[in-house]
Task: inverse folding
RNA sequence: GGAAGGGUGGCUGAGUGGACGAUAGCAUCGGUCUUGAAAACCGACGCGCCGCAAGGCGCCGUGGGUUCGAAUCCCACCCCUUCCGCCA
């Protein structure tokens, strides 16, 4: 959520910023109009309430001295009814304003490349070299199914399309990757590990910005009005909702969770394999930062995610997302993409964003400044990294001519010393 | 799921219809004293909103209700504690 004061004082700045994103400028007009109406209405309501308060006090005094106050009481009863009607109006306008404000996306940072869509993203850097194969590299579906690492057919029987089922060494690889990444973030990069609920309430979803806009993309548990998390960002960021942080910043947290996404707008796309699924595992990193240093924190956050891929020896590139492609709540965002030889495509496995005070304002997360005042802090998060696609990249990059997989050195201790996944006779 | 008790400012904890946005203590900040510190003493000290300001409105878990007037009375819900039941 943007600062309402900025909307009043400098709406052009917001219009401009939203224009760069390609967002609907009508959102700003709707919010401004509701705000103006709200303030006029408040003036009227508060004057009436003041009168009621003053006269009620007088009635109390008069009655103590034995004076009959029936007339005043009757007129205050009438005024009370008027106030109730005014309050009703204020509530309506408040709701309008809030709904409008919740739907205005964050303003992109000045450093972003200006652009319309994903085609205008800029490659900030690349790491590693793409492997030359002496044979035609296979895709992960063929590799994994022939090695018995996953079983899409039975997963569909259990649940439906898009829910992966890992078996044997495949399941073990999933667990190994999670442990490897958590160990890296916690032991070497200074993050505190958390294990969170996988289901959250509506207030949490609004706090991080998934609701109200993305309701269609979330799994909702009707009986209890709870939501399956689409990312650990939601529980981890909401850890500090409605709190004032008094300790040193940044606070760095990390958590493994499964992520649930309905992918409502993507039905029929990439239905086969692990590239687009309704449930995947992910290790997420979250930072609560001082506004003065949040952009430095973003750079180290990306570096922390890159370290995962460097240890695994996987070639990747870092994209600086353009103004037209960053997500709703982000002010700046880097995507990290892995090369998948079988797909002949770059796969997004991490998205590292600075939300500035956008989430903090929604979730009411503040810190104590040097001058003693409280203010909204900056939140950041990044995948460190997302599974399923990471598994795709490992299988496709480390495949051998005979269809076996040579595991990267860093994973060997996490696989009980297993160096090669081979077809079992 | 059932029963009982409880939810008040950063913390502890008073307050059962009008002078209460709230007594007191602790904590914090400023000052006096001191070589410095501690102690003592003096003072300041919740948040949000509207307003140029003066000032006003709102906030005692949340939402309703009663009343001229609600932290206080009534209803519903949420959360916490204890006990019982069930349970991986």
Result:
């Amino acid at each position: 959520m943007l600062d309402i004061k900025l909307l009043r004082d400098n709406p052009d700045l917001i219009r401009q910023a939203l224009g760069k994103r390609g967002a609907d400028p009508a959102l700003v007009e709707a919010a401004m109009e509701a705000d103006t109406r709200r303030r006029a209405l408040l003036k009227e309501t508060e004057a009436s309430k003041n009168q009621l308060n003053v006269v009620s006090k007088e009635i109390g005094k008069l009655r103590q001295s034995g004076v009959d106050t029936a007339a005043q009481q009757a007129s205050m009863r009438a005024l009370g009814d008027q106030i109730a009607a005014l309050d009703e109006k204020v509530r309506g306008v408040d709701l309008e304003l809030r709904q409008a404000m919740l739907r205005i996306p964050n303003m992109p940072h000045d450093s972003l490349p200006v652009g319309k869509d994903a085609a205008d993203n800029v490659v900030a850097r690349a790491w590693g070299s793409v492997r030359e194969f002496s044979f035609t590299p296979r895709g992960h579906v063929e590799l994994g199914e022939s090695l018995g690492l996953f079983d899409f057919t039975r997963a569909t029987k259990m649940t439906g399309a898009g829910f992966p089922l890992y078996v044997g060494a495949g399941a073990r690889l999933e667990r190994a990757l999670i442990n490897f990444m958590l160990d890296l973030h916690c032991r070497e990069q200074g993050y505190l590990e958390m294990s969170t609920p996988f289901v959250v309430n509506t207030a949490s979803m609004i706090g991080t910005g998934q609701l109200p806009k993305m309701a269609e993309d979330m799994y909702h548990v009707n009986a209890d009005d709870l939501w399956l998390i689409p990312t650990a960002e939601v529980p981890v960021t909401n850890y500090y909702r409605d709190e004032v942080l008094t300790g040193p910043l940044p606070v760095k947290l990390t958590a493994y969770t499964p992520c649930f996404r309905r992918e409502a707008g993507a039905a029929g796309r990439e239905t086969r394999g692990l590239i687009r699924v309704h449930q995947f595992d992910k290790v997420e990193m979250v930072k609560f930062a001082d506004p003065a240093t949040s952009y430095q924190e973003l750079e180290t956050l990306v570096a922390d995610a890159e370290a995962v891929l460097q240890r695994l020896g996987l070639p990747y590139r870092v994209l600086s997302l353009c103004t037209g492609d960053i997500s709703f709540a982000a002010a700046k965002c880097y995507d990290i993409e892995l090369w998948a030889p079988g797909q002949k495509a770059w796969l997004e496995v991490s998205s590292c964003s600075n939300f500035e005070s956008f989430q903090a304002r929604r979730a009411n997360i503040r810190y104590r400044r040097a001058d003693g005042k409280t203010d909204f802090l900056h939140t950041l998060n990044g995948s460190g990294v997302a599974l399923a696609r990471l598994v795709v990249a490992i299988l496709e990059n480390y495949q051998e001519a005979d269809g076996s997989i040579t595991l990267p050195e860093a994973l060997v201790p996490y696989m009980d010393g297993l160096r090669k996944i081979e077809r079992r006779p």
